[in-house]
Every structure is written in structure tokens, then in C-alpha cells.
Write a structure and sequence with these properties.
The chain is of the alpha/beta class. About 40% of the residues lie in helices and about 10% in strands. Helix 7 links the parallel strand 2 (about 130-135) and strand 3 (about 160). The structure holds magnesium ion.
Length: about 230
């Protein structure tokens, strides 16, 4: 199936859709984990680190579970949050700063599936508008696409949305994205590896397709079209 007729915009998930799940799990997370101490130690000289730690400290003050470590430099708590796979705003800010430093100094480069750069270019040539909707912060999304193993691709995208737009498993979030595009929801195709996200997008009226990329766990696609890569969506 090529791109469905009438589609004016493609909205892309990142992890498991444009980027291998293993890049996040095996590269980004360990990279941040190994640099938490050093990053937190920069709070006195780096105002952005200080702001992230202030957010983290507020979150720590509201911890209700008894097993969170003492705040200390912030690093033990950040490491504990990572081990729990908790969605923490302060942690995301801190990780974003660590990854930024790595992308800028060249020790990090974002992996994309091989068909992604050509597909983005092909859609743009056809006048299809492109957006990203990922639970990683917009800052982290822009960094990733600015430092890919295929160069800086940020110019392909006009819309960046993260969970400040709304949760990825709620229909209202996709209605909000459609409003930002200024398009009827059915003219937007949302691509993701997670069926619950596709269900939410479909409930908001968007067209949907499930990506079954290498490394993705097998899932029941339900009503969603299934694609192994973007080549069949051009
Ligand atoms: Mg995903």
C-alpha cells in the first residue's frame, strides 16, 4: 500500500519506528547512566544543569515510596529513577543535557533505519508535511535528528510534539497534533510500533500504520495496516 490518498502529513514515532529500540536501550540510556555523577557535579557552573536538578529535587520531595535514595548530588536519585524506568521530568532534562554534550562532541550519533532518510526526503518532495510525536522531550527529539548517522535531518520536520502535548495513548493528544498541523485528522498518517498509540490516534480520526521493525517485539496489529519499513509508504 503506498501512502493513502489524501494524506497531507505524516506523524512519526521515533523508538521502534525511525530508530531501533536497541539504540535507546543499549546506547542512549547507558551513555546517560555512566555520566550522571559528572553531569550533576556541573550544577554549580552550568545553569541548565542547576535547573534540571531543581526539578529533580522537587520531584524527590514528593516521593511517596520509601525506597528512593537520599537526594545527595542528585545522581543517586537520577540513577534510581532510571532503574525504575520512571517518567521523570527532571531526569529527562538531565538526560537531555548529557546527550546534547555527547552529540555535540561527536561521541553520540543517532541510528536510523536505513530507509528513513530517503523516505523523509521523498515525502517532502511530494509536498507531504512531517511531524514527530515521541515521549522523549522535544529537545531530545531535535538533538537526535540533528545528529544522525545520515546527517542533520531536522529540516524535514515542521512539527515536534512530546508529552507536553499529551500522553501518547490518549486520543486528545492526536486531536491536538492535528489542530497544530491545521489538517483534518484523517489527512494525517501516524506511524508507530505501539498498537495502543495507534488505537488512540485512530480514535481521534487519524490514519494509522504499524511498523514491524527488526528488534520490535511481535504484536497483534488489530485494525492497523502493517509495514516492515517506509519503502511501502512512499
Ligand atoms: Mg515507539
Amino acid at each position: 500500500m503506498p501512502l493513502p490518498a489524501g494524506v497531507g502529513a505524516v506523524l512519526l514515532d521515533i523508538e521502534g519506528t525511525t530508530t531501533p529500540l536497541s539504540f535507546v536501550r543499549d546506547v542512549l540510556f547507558p551513555y546517560a547512566r555512566a555520566r550522571l555523577e559528572a553531569a550533576c557535579a556541573r550544577a554549580a557552573t552550568d545553569p541548565r544543569v542547576a535547573r534540571a536538578l531543581a526539578t529533580l529535587r522537587r520531584e524527590h520531595a514528593h516521593e511517596t515510596g520509601g525506597d528512593a535514595p537520599a537526594f545527595g548530588t542528585g545522581a543517586p536519585y537520577a540513577a534510581w529513577l532510571m532503574e525504575q524506568d520512571r517518567k521523570s521530568t527532571g531526569l529527562k532534562e538531565l538526560q537531555g543535557l548529557i546527550w546534547e554534550a555527547g552529540y555535540v562532541d561527536g561521541t553520540l550519533s543517532a541510528s536510523l533505519f536505513a530507509d528513513v532518510p530517503a523516505a523523509l526526503a521523498s515525502w517532502r518532495r511530494a509536498g507531504v508535511r512531517l511531524g514527530v510525536f515521541s515521549s522523549g522531550s522535544v529537545h531530545a527529539q531535535r538533538l537526535l535528528f540533528a545528529h544522525t548517522d545520515h546527517g542533520d535531518l531536522t529540516g524535514c520536520f515542521e512539527l515536534w510534539a512530546d508529552t507536553t502535548t499529551g500522553p501518547k495513548r490518549e486520543a486528545a493528544s492526536y486531536a491536538a497534533v492535528a489542530a497544530r498541523f491545521g489538517l483534518e485528522p484523517e489527512r494525517i498518517l501516524f506511524l508507530s510500533d505501539v498498537v495502543a498509540e495507534l488505537d488512540a490516534a485512530r480514535a481521534a480520526g487519524l490514519a494509522t500504520a504499524l511498523l514491524t521493525r527488526p528488534g520490535n517485539p511481535p504484536v497483534d496489529p488489530g485494525p492497523h495496516a502493517v509495514h516492515r519499513d517506509f519503502a511501502t509508504l512512499l
